[in-house]
Amino acid sequence: MSMQCTLYGDDGKGNVKTGITVGDGQKFWFKGYVMSGMINPITNKRVDVWFDEYSPEPPYTFRKSWWLCTVYTNNDGYFDSYPYDTCWLKYMGQSTRGFPILQLWQAKLGKIWEGEVQVNLGFKAVVT
C-alpha cells in the first residue's frame, strides 16, 4: 500500500503551512495527514516527527535527525501534536559570521538543539 504523509507547521496564529515563520519564543507544533493515494485516510498509524540538522554552510550536508514526538492518525488520517508536543525557538544572538544562533526547544524534552542558521530549519514526519 502506498502512503503519503503530509506535514504542516502551525504557528498558533492561523498559519498552517509546510513552511511557517515564527518569532523568538513563539510556540509552534505539527499536524498533517496520512493518506493512501489522494483520498483514502489511513487510520491509527504511528507518525514520528523529526528535526533534521544540516551544516550551516553550503552545501548544507546532513548531520543528524533529532526525534521530537510521536503522534497517531485518527479516523480521518489526521494527526496533531498540540498541545503536548509544542516547540519553540530561542534566539541566542549572532555568530561571528553574522547569522542567527538559535536553540530548538520542545515542551516535554527541553532543549533539543543549538546552532547557527543561515537559511531555515527542516522537519519531517515518518510513518512507521
User: Major β-sheet, in short?
Assistant: 5 strands, antiparallel
Distance between the termini: 13 Å
By secondary-structure content and strand pairing, the structural class works out as mainly beta
How many strands in all? 11
Could you spell the SSE succession in H and E letters?
EEEEEEEEEEE
Number of helices: 0
Arithmetic mean pLDDT: 94
Task: Describe this entry's structure for a reader.
- By secondary structure, the protein is an all-beta fold.
- The protein has one domain (3-86, 120-127).
- Helix content is 0%, strand content 55%.
- It contains no helices and 11 strands.
- Strands 1, 2, 3, 4 and 7 form a 5-stranded antiparallel sheet that branches.
- A hairpin with a 5-residue loop joins strand 1 and strand 2.
- The chain is globular.
Structural key phrases:
128 residues; mainly beta; 3-stranded antiparallel beta sheet; globular
Set out the fold topology.
Blueprint: E1 3-10, E2 16-17, E3 29-36, E4 40-41, E5 46-54, E6 62-72, E7 78-80, E8 87-94, E9 100-106, E10 110-116, E11 122-127
Antiparallel strand pairs: 1-2, 1-3, 3-4, 3-7, 5-6, 5-11, 8-9, 9-10
In summary, what is this structure?
By secondary structure, the chain is mainly beta.
